[in-house]
Amino acid sequence: MNVTAPRPPADYAPGLGRWLRWRRAGGGANRQQGQPNVPEGPRRRRRIWAVMGLIIVLGLVLGFAWGEQRGWPWLVRPVAQVVAHVIERPVEVGGGSDARLHLWGGVHLSAPQVRIGAPDWAVRDGTPWLLSLDDGELAAGYGALWRMARGGKVELERLQARRVDAWLIRLPDGRASWQMGPPKPDEAQAVQQNAEPPWRSLTVHQMAMRQGLFIVDDQVFGLQARVSASVVPVGGVSGAQEASESNELNELKGLHRRAHGQPQWQWAALAEGSHRGLPLHVRARSTQPWNWASHGELTVEGLVGRARIGYQGPAPEADGAVAGRFSLAGPSLAAIGEALGVTLPTTAPFRMSGAVRRQGERTEVTVDQARIGDSRLSGDFVHDRATTPPTLTGVLRGSRLALADLGPAVGVPLQDGEPRAASAERVLPDRPFNLPSLRAMDADVRIAIDLFDTGNEALQDMRDLRGRILLQGGLLRLEQLSTRLAKGSVQGRIELDARQPTQALLATDLNVDDVHLEQWAKVLQRPGREPLASGVLSGRVVVNGHGRSTAELLGTLGGRFDLALRQGRVSHLGVELAGLDLMEGAVQFIKGDESLPITCAQVRLEARNGVLHPAPLIVSTPDSTLWADGQISLKDETLDLRTRVAPKDFTLVALRTPVQLSGPWRNVDVKVMHPETWMRILGAAALAAVNPLAGVLPLVDPGQRDEARAADQRCRQAMANKPS
Question: What is the pLDDT of residue 649?
Fold first, then answer.
């Protein structure tokens, strides 16, 4: 017996309330019979719409796949017009039906010829295009296109062509030919304050081209160059093809070859031009494919100005980050500073090598080996361009540092072959300081040098030189300075203030502790015999000055030099000869020189406006007392000193005449025979004519004990009142 479920009434209309009443009335009671729970009409209509939607989607997918496979040749020009409207640049696609377009995941265009126009201002200046490709392909993501349309950086996923020509122009006001869309507010000021090279604004993740020519004129970064490049597969091209290429491409292929002569590089570039007004010639090559995301090996070598640069390591990443090995060489560190935009001192010729790591505005440099003249240095440094002004921090180490190698930085000896100034006859260096360079960067560098060579062969070198160089806003300070010298030490600070536009201010405060005179002054040593003079030297030097060179600083010097000698000894023969004691000198010469103890020795020089005055300069021994008066002019480079010797004993034959030193430093006039000395000699000669024994009488010297005691008292008072 078949039981049939009641059908809905004829006037049934879909609705939850009516459906529930229909169910309570017994509708759908027999589900085993396969009767629908929903009215048949609405369900049928939904099925029809679902099938139609599926057919439409399938058709669209098949149509898109067919279009992608064919390359949408009929959409190439319309899409080019849309892209031109978005980036606000003309876009031309040549080749007609040979042009292909792919839209999956981004815009991928290939055509016999593709050209992207330059901005209007660049066209007026004669720049034909931004980019021109022959047999080329371009690929960019939709996100990158949107960012470029809003004035962001140019970012291409792929660029491939038989030939690429590009014109990269940037004006001083910040307008750049590669900038898409309208310029941002205050763009010019931002670009000028944070100038970056053009390649930091252009990113091509994958690139392949037979030959490329890039004309770069970046007036913000100061770069004008013609860059030839080629990116080809390993193994190169056939001989016939190679013969048909340009000389530039053949030169590129010669940059890196295997032993059997086949090209091995995958990309290479040549740059000729100028950077910041310096001549530029750089070559770069890599055996890895061009890919920003990879860390392919890169080799760079060339000349920037007078500096020779080299790099080997991973290629820079898209954001400019780099980490590899470097080498630098040139006639001076200042030449490298010019090339890198970093303030460095003028030095002797140098070469160095090490590792470099750059991330953003921060550059870390490890110098494994640096040879500057005869100096041997190393160190670790960090240069940060994110601050204003840029900062340099680190540690400078070395086994040897020669003052002559760094001297030109403070105006000390001119280098060989360098033109001499009109005032080159001066003894003190008068080469002007580079004051603006001291205001271009801040620095905090610690110093650890094993041997510091002052360049004076008559003086012993310093050892274990330690200190801290602080440069802040043009104020250069050498703090915590300490060094070992002749069993003693020298400590203190030196300050050079270059904050004024026309001159620098010098302030020096040094303490000399327990320096052994005979070891420091090599000229006092006598092999196999006691030194001419010995003792332990201590004291303090406090001076200041101002000027535009070392000569001007010393020519305005003010302050004092206060040095005392303890446990001193001096050559007896030297003392007698200083006082022209002929008899005692002859005796000492015959029986052999011996040393006398120094009971008091005080060297105090007061500096006033570049003139040094002894106040006092006294050396006292049991035999005699020596002192000096007069002046030493650092301003005029002249001497006017008189030394006297007061004997404390009787002598039979002595002239006892003061010694006068006068005149310019380069031609000092030494006067020993004064008029009173000549009178004694003439008197002795006259008496000798009467009786030879009588001729000795004018030369007899009973001694000058009172003058010697007065000088000794001054020496003891000076030592007792030693300034702190």
Answer: 59
In this structure, is residue 94 part of a structural domain? yes
Taking the C-alpha atoms of residue 272 and residue 253, their distance in angstroms, rounded to an integer, is 17
Cα-Cα-Cα-Cα dihedral sign, residues 473, 475, 480, 486: positive
Q: Confirm whether 522 is domain-assigned.
A: no
Establish whether the linkage from the previous residue to 436 is cis, with ω within 30° of 0: no
Q: Within a 13 Å sphere around the CA of 523, how many CA atoms are in the beta-carbon half?
A: 4
User: Which residue type, as a one-letter code, is found at position 193?
Assistant: Q
pLDDT at 78: 85
Q: Tell me which residue range forms the domain holding 148.
A: 78-183+197-221
Please list the residues that pair with 548 across neighbouring strands: none
Structure tokens at 85: 């409207």
CB–CB of 330/278 below 8 Å?
Answer: no
Ramachandran bin of 261, using left for φ above 0, alpha for ψ from -120 to 50, beta for the remaining angles = left
Count up the domains in the chain and report the number: 2
Confidence label for 425 from pLDDT (cuts 50, 70 and 90): low
**Do 639 and 663 form a contact (C-beta atoms < 8 A)?**
yes
Closest CA to 499 of 410, 409, 433, 430: 433
**Exposure pattern of 178-189 as b/e (b: 16+ CB <10 Å)?**
bbbeeeeeebbe
Instruction: Give pLDDT tens digits for 495-552.
Output: 988 888 788 899 999 999 999 988 888 887 878 778 878 889 999 999 999 988 888 8
Q: How far apart are CA 487 and CA 520, in angstroms?
A: 9
- Which residue blocks in 515-609 are alpha helix, DSSP H? 517-520, 550-555, 572-578, 582-591
Over residues 650-676, the pLDDT tens digits come to 454 445 566 777 888 778 777 665 555
| Beta bridge mates, 563 | 539, 603
Q: For the residues of 230-274, what is the DSSP string, one character each?
A: EE--TT---HHHHHHS-HHHHHHHTTSB-TTS-B--SEEEEEEEE
Are the CB atoms for 535 and 527 separated by under 8 Å?
Answer: no
End-to-end CA distance of the chain: 131
For residue 94, give the amino acid letter: G
Distance set, CA 182 to CA 89, 117, 145, 443, 613 (Å): 11, 15, 14, 40, 72
User: Which H or E run contains 660?
Assistant: strand 659-664
Domain-embedded: residue 704:
yes
How many angstroms from the chain centroid is the CA of residue 120?
39
pLDDT of residue 189: 44
Three-class secondary structure of residue 697 per DSSP = helix
Higher pLDDT, 672 or 88: 88
The amino acid occupying position 63 is G
Q: What is the mean pLDDT of residues 290-318?
A: 80
Looking at 173, 206, 221, which one is the last position of a domain? 221
CB neighbour class for 392 (10 Å; exposed up to 12, middle 13-18, buried from 19): buried
Residue 1 scores a pLDDT above 60: no
The encoded tokens of residue 136 equal: 């080329």
Which secondary-structure segment (H or E) carries 559? strand 558-571
Q: What is the pLDDT of residues 584-635, one digit of tens each?
A: 545 555 555 677 788 888 888 899 999 999 887 888 878 777 778 889 898 8
pLDDT number for residue 27? 55
Q: Taking 50 as the threshold, does the pLDDT of residue 263 lie above it?
A: no
What pLDDT band is residue 89 in, cutting at 50, 70 and 90?
A: confident
Task: State how far the Cα of 503 lies from the Cα of 501, in Å rounded to an integer.
Answer: 6
Token look-up 């505005």 returns: 361
Question: Residue 395's pLDDT is what?
Answer: 96
For residues 334 and 344, the answer to whether their CB atoms sit within 8 Å is: yes
Q: Cα 647 from chain centroid?
A: 60
Average pLDDT over residues 211-226: 88
Averaged confidence pLDDT in the chain: 76
411 vs 430: CA distance, rounded Å: 6
Residue 694 lies in a domain: yes
The pTM of this model reads: 0.67
Q: How far is CA 167 from CA 151, 154, 179, 214, 568, in A?
A: 18, 14, 12, 6, 78
